[in-house]
Amino acid sequence: MDKSTDKLGASQVIFVGCGRMGSALAEGVVNSGRVKGERVVCLDADAAKASALAKKIGAQTQLLEGFEGARIWIIGVKPNDVASVIRSYASQFESNDTVVSIAAGLRLGYLRNLLPPGVGLVRAMPNTPALVQRGVTGIMADDKEDLTPIRALFEGVGHVVELKAESEFDALTGLSGSGPAYIFTAIEALADGGVLMGLSREVARQLAVHTVAGAAAMVEADPSVHSAELKDRVASPGGTTITALASLEANGFRHALIEAVRSAALQSRAMSGEE
Ligand SMILES: NC(=O)C1=CN([C@@H]2O[C@H](COP(=O)(O)OP(=O)(O)OC[C@H]3O[C@@H](n4cnc5c(N)ncnc54)[C@H](OP(=O)(O)O)[C@@H]3O)[C@@H](O)[C@H]2O)C=CC1
Ligand SMILES: O=C(O)[C@@H]1CCC=N1
Q1: Is 47 in the pocket of ligand 1 (CB under 6 A)?
Q2: Which atom of ligand 1 is nearest the CA belonging to 105?
Q3: Which residues contact 18 (CB under 8 A, 6 or more apart)?
Q4: Residue 173 within any structural domain of the chain
Q5: Is 104 in the pocket of ligand 1 (CB under 6 A)?
Q6: Sequence-distant (≥ 6) Cβ neighbours of residue 64 within 8 angstroms
Q7: Does 14 share its domain with 82?
Q8: 13 in Cβ contact with 20 (< 8 Å)
Q9: What is the pLDDT of residue 275?
Q10: Domain C-terminal end among 114, 131, 166
Q11: 257 and 235: one domain?
Q12: SS3 169
């Protein structure tokens, strides 16, 4: 274990809000082995939801008593609930603690005003593939917060990108935060196409998911090869692929994806109160 994972492993990680993103992170973090289940606490307005998750991952449902190490609070409630949740825990935050907000649209300045002085603050935007350790998370510290253990936590569940300007969170949210939903829709539509052309649903699903995973793995394997080159290698002159690519262009495929990222980013910006 290196120093960064050491520091994380010695921490208590508290998930406030164990919904879709909070539970994916909690499960991914424990499965990564970087934090032991016994050091993880699951809290939710719905106690049964927190208990079920805690049971699944060997975590706790109450803060660890007498714990003197650093504590990382992951605030995983809806953006509209973040202020009231932070206020309700404010008296329990200590100077060794770091609060991590994963809420879309909420700026560090807004969050800082909710916290008692001396408490660390980090903004993060993960995505749900964290559940299977294939997430990607943007992180940024407020002030001079030590990002080492937070980086280690999110690296346990995938790739981490450290942002330098907070305005980049809007674009990152539109691309990777919301992005899994675009790809799930693409997988569903590809499978639908296969079913339309006579495949069984299960065979079509397998073909769609492995095609997307395989193409992504190729792009990941060699960053020096542009994805356009990989696309060209599939398209034979006068063949099936170029015929399909022409159809995608005619139907605004690229434009649809660009606009998806842009509109989600603009929504993230609007949620921050900036237009
Ligand atoms: N879903 C995603 O892919 C991503 C989400 N995010 C961010 O993560 C956050 C959560 O989103 P998501 O997981 O989708 O939402 P969910 O509604 O699935 O989860 C939020 C959870 O918080 C619980 N909750 C509400 N109030 C409190 C409270 N006072 N104390 C403790 N728990 C509470 C909710 O309980 P109940 O349902 O009973 O109200 C629910 O279980 C949002 O801020 C979102 O912007 C970030 C990246 C990706
Ligand atoms: O849809 C949302 O607002 C959240 C943030 C990114 C993904 N889900």
Answers
A1: no
A2: 45
A3: 26, 42, 43, 44, 49, 50, 53, 76
A4: no
A5: yes
A6: 12, 39, 41
A7: yes
A8: no
A9: 65
A10: 166
A11: yes
A12: helix
Cβ atoms of 126 and 148 closer than 8 Å: no
pLDDT digits (tens, 9 = 90+) for 125-157: 999 999 999 999 999 999 877 899 999 999 999
For each successive 10 residues of the chain (275 residues), what is the average pLDDT? 74 97 97 95 98 98 91 98 96 94 97 95 97 97 89 97 96 98 98 98 98 98 97 98 98 98 97 82
pLDDT of residue 4: 63
1-47: pLDDT as tens digits:
466 677 898 899 999 999 999 999 999 999 999 999 999 999 999 99
Q: What CA–CA distance (Å, rounded) separates 125 from 109?
A: 16
Rounded distance from Cα 130 to ligand 2 centre (Å): 14
Give the range of the structural domain holding residue 148, as residue numbers without chain letter: 3-166
- At residue 8, the 3 state secondary structure works out as helix
Q: Which residues pair with 98 in a beta bridge?
A: 72, 120
Return the residue whose CA atom lies nearest to atom 5 of ligand 1.
21
Selection from 120, 89, 126 nearest residue 11 by Cα: 120
Place of tokens 């649209």: 105
pLDDT at 2: 63
**Ligand in closest contact with the CA of 130:** 1
Residue 178 alpha carbon to ligand 1 centre in Å: 14
Q: What is the ipTM of this complex?
A: 0.98
**Top mutation candidate among 15, 18, 21 for ligand 1, by most atoms within 8 Å of CB:** 21
